[in-house]
Structures are given as structure tokens and as C-alpha cells.
From TrEMBL, chain A:
It comes from the Bacteria. The lineage of its organism: Bacteria, Pseudomonadati, Bacteroidota, Sphingobacteriia, Sphingobacteriales. It comes from Parapedobacter indicus. This is Multisubunit sodium/proton antiporter, MrpF subunit. One of its GO terms (cellular component) is plasma membrane. The chain crosses the membrane at residues 6-24, 36-56, 62-84.
UniProtKB/TrEMBL annotation, chain B:
GO terms for molecular function: sodium:proton antiporter activity. The chain crosses the membrane at residues 6-25, 37-56, 68-91. The keyword Membrane applies. Keywords: Membrane, Transmembrane, Transmembrane helix. InterPro entries: PhaG_MnhG_YufB (IPR005133). This is Multisubunit sodium/proton antiporter, MrpG subunit. The keyword Lyase does not apply.
Amino acid sequence: MTLSAYIDYVILPILGLSLLLVFIRLVRGPSVVDRVVALDLLITIGVSVITVYSISTQKSTLIDVAMILALIAFLGTIAFAYYLEKRGRK
Amino acid sequence: MTAILIGILCTIGALAILIAAIGILRMPDFYLRLSVTVKAATLGGGLLLLCAAFYFPDEVSVTTKALAIIFFLTLTAPVAAHLIARAAYFIGTEQWKGTVRDDLAGMYDKETHTLGSGKESGGD
């Protein structure tokens, strides 16, 4: 079994299942902060999926996309936290 | 040999991410969800990025980028988690009914959002 087939048939389905579980929490989440954390985790798993896919297809250019996505996830969470705290203070 | 190493690292990373996903779905409380998510997902993502760093050994730029993403993830995940937990505490996210103690209760100033030690009013 080659590494590419192992990634395609074992690793990527596990990551896809994780994305599905996190997405359920994103839809159901009782409060706003639950949704923010679920979104952050969703983007982190997305970075992992892109990395694994670049190993599987041997296209190393995709790592750049993962880097930008990690930056955007951090900025998004910081912005959500800042405005949620500001809204609570009035 | 490298393929076996990458396979083992990939498996551990994917299982850590799966544990994080199950945790965020099953935990009863926002703070417990946050505690599970940040650590396990950072570990899993870091291991999968380490696989990419090992897999493209003759392209130095790719290895450098993968290591830079790992460094950035481990640097920013605790900061983001701290900020969102702080915001959640301020807007009054309710805790699990089995929570035993809350050390922050009454320590935050409601107006200025500064953290006190709880001994200001009792002292001289």
C-alpha cells in the first residue's frame, strides 16, 4: 500500500468525519462563542486537509494556501473576541 | 522508511483531530469544549504539517513554510483561546451544572474589565 493510497483512503476520511462533527456543533451551538470556537476548529482542520492533500497529490504549492488560512483563522477569532467583549460592555 | 514514519505521524495527527471533533460535540459546557479543542487540534495539525516537512525534503522552501506554520499555530492558538474565553466569561456564558468552583467570580471589575485580586475592598 503506497503512502498516497493510505492518505486517500484512511487519513482523508478521518479528517472528513471530523469536519462533519464540528459542523454539527457549528449549526447547533447554543451560544455565539460556541460557534466562534467551532469555526476556528473548522479552519484548523481545513489547514490539515490541505496539507495532507498536498502530500497525496505531490503538489507542494498548496502549502501556501494553508499558511494564509492559518493567519486568517487567528485574525477572525481575535476580531470576534474583541467585538463580543465590546458588546457586553456597552 | 520515510513513508512508514510519515504514515505513523499522519495517523497520530488524524486521530488527535478526531478526538478534538468528538470532544467539541460531546462536552457539556463551552469552557470544557474550548479546553479539549485547542490542545488536541493544535497537536494534530502540527503533526500533519510535520509530515509535509518530512515529505518534501529536497525543497527547502516547503519545509521552511511547514515549520513556520507549526510555529505560528503553536504561538497563536493559546492567545486566541484565552481571548475568546475571556470574552465568553464577560458576556456571561453559563457553566456546566457540575462545576465545583469558579475562581474568577467577583474578581473582574464590571466597568473597566480589569482583574483584581479580591482583597482591595477588605484591606486598609
